Amino acid sequence: MLVIFEGTSQVETTVRAVLADILGLSADRVATFTADTPLFGALPELDSMAVASVLTELEDRLGILIEDDEIDGEMLETFGALVQFAAGKALV
Amino acid sequence: MTSLRFDTYDWPGGREAMLRFGPDTGPIVIAALPLFEEANRTRQFTCTILRALADHGIGSLLSDFPGTGESVVTTLDTKLSEQRRAYRALTQQLGVHSYALSIRSGALLDTDADLAGRWHLAPHTGSDLVRDLERTRAAASKSAREGEYAGNRLSPEMLAELQDAVPFEGGRYRVVRLNTDPRTADATYAGAPLWRRSEPSNDIAFAQQLAADISHWIASCEG
Question: What highest taxon heads this organism's lineage (chain A) (predicted)?
């Protein structure tokens, strides 16, 4: 599996699994996601309600807390951006 | 096996509907869906668990509570304390050994009832539920009315009661979680968190595993 950032492979695996589970995407499809794969605005399944579910599920699985004022369009722009955001929370 | 039937029960604030599955004899499993949006996402899955329980010879019911399902009480007019009161009245009316099968925030409803045991799937605390509601509300901020959370209008009293609510873990208690959930559990299973999925879905294999787990657990409680 592609590792986007050093030391983040576990986080990346979790982000992939959460996107598959919450958005109802196949494992094959999320396996093709790269750092540049656009998310919000590009995946019709990822509407604003689904964003809330994805972030809350990431919190549960990674044991992190995401403050509402941290949620912006940038972190959801691409798969790489979401992994980087989650890794920044999980690996500190 | 007895087929699906429609039934009702009375509580001090009115009458609510329930679906009954499986035999009328023996212990009864009372299923409580999560509150609000997650109820839609888990209803079909829960019915699959209850049908599988009937195959194990265990009767069950899927009940409405004030402000849920077909209840004539609006979400704005209900409170957690009233839903707990209705749950207690339901167990009193049944008058048999009953076991809770509570999913997510459904685990906040069985706290005051006289039950032989409680089986919780991925139970949610009230404060976590309120946090989810607030986040969803923020995501839908452009269209939400005052006091509206993902389409549900809730009173300040309801939100205050939810904020302090936690599942009751005393007596015969079993908590089951997904294997992706790091929190403590008596058993974990592989499966998707259907309660968070954008579109309602089902997982028959997972439901059958859970029904077998519940069936074994009730046998051990009764034995």
Answer: Bacteria
Q: Is residue B223 part of a domain?
A: no
The minimal CB distance from B182 to the residues A56, A57, A63 is found for A63
| Spatial separation of the C-alpha atoms in residues B69 and B72, rounded to whole Å | 9
Cα separation of B67 and B78, whole Å?
6
SS3 B120: strand
Burial of B56 (0-12, 13-18, 19+ CB in 10 A): middle
Helix B80-94 and helix B156-164: axis angle, to 10°?
70
Q: Quick check: is A3 in a domain?
A: no
Contact A36, A42 (CB under 8 A): no
Q: Tell me, what amino acid is at A85?
A: F
pLDDT above 90: residue B156: yes
Whole-angstrom distance, CA of residue B11 vs CA of residue B89: 5
pTM attached to this predicted model: 0.92
Does the beta carbon of B197 lie under 8 angstroms from any beta carbon of chain A?
Answer: yes
Report ipTM for this prediction.
0.82
